[in-house]
Amino acid sequence: MEALWCDRCGESLREADHFDCQVARNLEPPRFCSSCRRRMVVQVLPAGWSARCSEHGVVDQLNNDE
Amino acid sequence: MTQTTQPQADAAVILQQAREQVLDRGIGLSADQVLQVLQLPDESVADALALAHEVRMKWCGPEVEVEGIVSIKTGGCPEDCHFCSQSGLFTSPVRSVWLNIEELVTAAKQTAATGASEFCIVAAVRGPDENLMSQMREGVAAIKEAVDINVAASLGILTKEQVDDLVDMGVHRYNHNLETAQSYFPNVVTTHTWDERWETLEMVRDSGMEVCCGGIVGMGESVEQRAEFAGQLGALKPHEVPLNFFNPRPGTPFEEVPVMSSTEALLSIAAFRLAMPTTVLRFAGGREITLGEIGTRDGLLGGINAVIVGNYLTTLGRPADEDLELLADLKMPIKAVADAL
After folding, report:
1. In Å, how far is B169's CA from the nearest CA of chain A?
2. I need a surface site. Which of A52, A60, B42, B274 has the fewest CB within 10 A?
3. Percentage of chain B surpassing pLDDT 90?
4. What ranges do the domains of chain A cover?
5. What's the fold here for domain B54-340?
């Protein structure tokens, strides 16, 4: 699925490079669905995280790292 | 913000006085003395950290207490703590979510697997309602059944009955941060007072639970207020002080407050240790951004004797393995569960 939106700030990926967001994402889980920009329900655990978009389902740390 | 620094000659005198008072006699520095430490010139930071490390080794020993934390109820908080992404009053992207019991036990197992002796369950609330207390009852019992680890809690402002309930559940330590100096608190929170937090802490202490109380440095407070905060924590005499370094969160009123310098952060570590020679002084959130790998090492050699490993509540920490390798490298043994009781 094409990523259209920054998963940290929720703004369009086409309108800026989002370098600061990429750096910040090393220490933050995603907050926005990159496909539809919906805010995701995110649970952080001591050794991982999962994020769920009501439209596009679950992203977790393992899948995100792949 | 312009800050006064002590001349180098005075710095040696300040540290020598601290050595005699804190290292030799175990008496923590007062707020005025902490201010002198916080105003030391950059050239004296290494000496301050070395003294703080000596104090930690003499009064606490070489062991490091390792802890993991998890949020049982994230987001949607009615309070307005200006640093926090979990307030429902701000435009933060953090959405409300509850952790179920199975996930809670999984989190406790993940924490125990690192060798940690502490697992703290945290909720973003003003104070717990019956639904949360019920969830805690079930969750703490399930953890104790499945995992050999001490359970702590952080659920906001408590009633006396709730304090007693937590004791009955077997919660051995309660976290409730004062967050900052009393004089700066109204700039940070307007929906409750510093005194309300203090009242909960007194009830926790009277119950026999261990008191865990710290805060966040670098939220725009003056260096005088940072010293005031250390003095107020020193007066409280908490068993543990978690020391967070401000990490600006999107959508919060403090999102534009800059991150403090690593030098300032390290001096804060040394100063807080010199104010509280016997407390468990824990590295908490924001250290990855403020201090990085080198600063984390310097902090562990500058008064810190406890760490939160793994992720935080809404942000991520560095992998637990990296902290554990660092502790091994520094020859700092991890405190075992039995020793922590």
Report:
1. 23
2. B42
3. 96
4. 19-65
5. TIM Barrel (3.20.20)
